[in-house]
Amino acid sequence: MNTNSWNDWNRIVLKVGSALIAPSGNGCSAHQLFPIAQFIIECRKQGKQVVLVSSGSVAAGRHVFSNPDNPSLALKKAMAAAGQSEMVSTWDRLFDFHTAQILLTHGDLRDQERYHSIRDTIMTSLEHGVMPIVNENDTVTTDGLKVGDNDNLSAMVAAAAGADALIMCSDINGLYNKNPKIHEDAELLSVVSEITENIKEMAGGAISSTGTGGMLTKLQAAEKATAHGITTYIVNGFEAETFSKLVRGENPGTVFTPYKNPMQDDLHWLTHTTRAQGEIIVDQSGAVCVLDDEKTLSSDQLVDVKGNFNIGDTVLVKTENGNRVAKGVANYSSCLMSYISDQHEPNETAFPTIESLIEDKNIAVLKEA
Ligand SMILES: Nc1ncnc2c1ncn2[C@@H]1O[C@H](COP(=O)(O)OP(=O)(O)O)[C@@H](O)[C@H]1O
Ligand SMILES: N[C@@H](CCC(=O)OP(=O)(O)O)C(=O)O
Asked: Domain PUA, which positions (predicted)?
C-alpha cells in the first residue's frame, strides 16, 4: 500500500467542520477544539507544518442574528462576516504562536496567477512559523465564484501547499458503506485504495443543520488530494483518541491511498481546481491533435463554441458527439473563436488559420477521450 503516516509528514492540511466549531448554535465553543489544538501543537513541536482549513463562520455568526430558521443568502453572508472573526479569534486563543487568516473564493483559485500568489503566501507564512487559517470568503462569493464547501477547498489548498497529508475532521468516524446516522448496520471502511463509482454511491449528504455537503464533498476532496499524491483521512474530530492514534501512526478512521504517480502541479490545477468557463467543439482531427504529443488545435478544426470565456480561462474541448477530450487554457476569447467557427469557407474570408487555440503546454487529457 502507498499510504504514508505520521513519520512521513512534513506538511499537513487539517480541515475542521462547522459542527466542531459551533456545535450548539450559540457561537463558537473552544471545548471540542482542545484535542485538535493539542494535535496541531504536537505536529509543530515535531517540526511538521500545519495549515488549518476551518469552517464555521456561518454557524458561529448565527446567534448574532437570533438564530433564524431559514436565513436568506444576504443574512447568511452577514452571519459569515460576524462569525469569521469569532471563529478565528477562538482558534487564536488556543495557540501561543501567530496565525494568519486567508479567505479565498474559487475565483481566486482558478486564476493561475492568483493561485500561485496564494501558494506563496501560505508557504511564506509557514516558513515564518505562522499557521494559516483558511476559509472560503463567504461574504463576497456568488454562485459562479464559490467553491461551495470546505472539503473541496481543503483539497485545493492541500495541493497548492504541496501537503503530504489532508485530514478532514468531521462528526463521524470516517466513510461507512451507507450513512450511519440513518442505517444502524452501516460498516466503516478503513482503507479506500480507489474512489470508484461504487464507493461514491455509498456517500450521502449532511444530516446536521451545520454541515455542508456531507460525504459526497469529502470524496470529491479525497479524489483531488490523492491525485496530487496526498494521503487523505476522514476522521472523527470529536474523539480525542483520533489524534493520539494519528501521532502513533495509526489510522483512526478512513484513509484514502494516494496515487503512485501523482499528477504534475499545473495539470492537477487544471484538472482539479479550475472549472471550464465554456466549450470548444472540434472535429475528429482536432481531437486527435489535442491528444497527440504536439497538442495543437488549429482554427480549421473548430466546429462550434459554447459559453462566454476570455483569454486565459479554462475550456473543455469536446467532440461533435459530446465526448470530453481535454481541459485547456484558451488563447482566444469565445467571441473571436465563435466568429472564426462561423466562417464556413475560410478561403473566402481572408481570415488566416490560427494555429494554437489553446495553450499547448497546459492540456489535461480527460478520461472519455
Ligand atoms: N456513507 C457515509 N458515511 C459516513 N457519513 C455519511 C455517509 N453518508 C452521509 N454521511 C453524512 O455525512 C455527515 C458528515 O458531513 P458534514 O455534516 O458535511 O460534516 P462536516 O461539517 O464535518 O463537513 C455525517 O454526519 C453523515 O450524516
Ligand atoms: N465557509 C463555510 C463552511 C462551509 C462548509 O463546507 O462547512 P462544513 O461542511 O461544516 O465543512 C463557513 O465557514 O460557514
From this structure: 278-340
- Domain 6-268 coded CATH 3.50.30.10: no
Fold of 276-365: 2.30.130
Kindly state the DSSP code that residue 188 receives in the 8-state scheme.
Answer: B
- E strands, 137-223, are 165-170, 191-192
Q: Ligand 1 centre from 103 Cα, in Å?
A: 24
48 lines ligand 1 (CB under 6 A): no
DSSP, collapsed to helix, strand or coil, labels residue 107 as: helix
Which residue is listed with cell 497527440? 292
Residues of the chain with pLDDT under 70: 1-2, 206-211, 344-351, 367-369
How far does residue 217's CA lie from ligand 1's centre (Å)?
Answer: 9
Map out the domains of the chain as residue ranges. Answer: 6-268, 276-365
For strands 278-282 and 314-319, give the pairing.
Answer: parallel
* 17 within ligand 1 shell (Cβ under 6 A): yes
Measured from the Cβ of residue 286, the count of other Cβ atoms closer than 10 Å reads 25
pLDDT value, residue 229: 97
- Three-state secondary structure call for residue 202: helix
Ligand 1 nearest atom to the CA of residue 215, by list position:
12
ipTM tops 0.95: yes
Query: Nearest bound ligand to CA 134?
Result: 2
Looking up cell 479550475, which residue turns up?
274
Helix pair angle (34-45, 240-247), 10° resolution: 10
What is the atom index within ligand 2 of the atom nearest the CA of 19?
10
Tell me which ligand sits closest to the C-alpha of residue 215.
1
CA of 83 to the centre of ligand 1 (A): 22
State the pLDDT at residue 369: 45
pLDDT at 219: 97
Could you check whether 6-268 and 276-365 share the same CATH topology? Answer: no
Please state, in angstroms and rounded to a whole number, the distance separating the CA atoms of residues 98 and 129: 7
How many angstroms from the chain centroid is the CA of residue 16? 14
Report the pLDDT value the prediction gives residue 142, as an integer from 0 to 100.
85
CA 17 – ligand 1 centroid, Å: 10
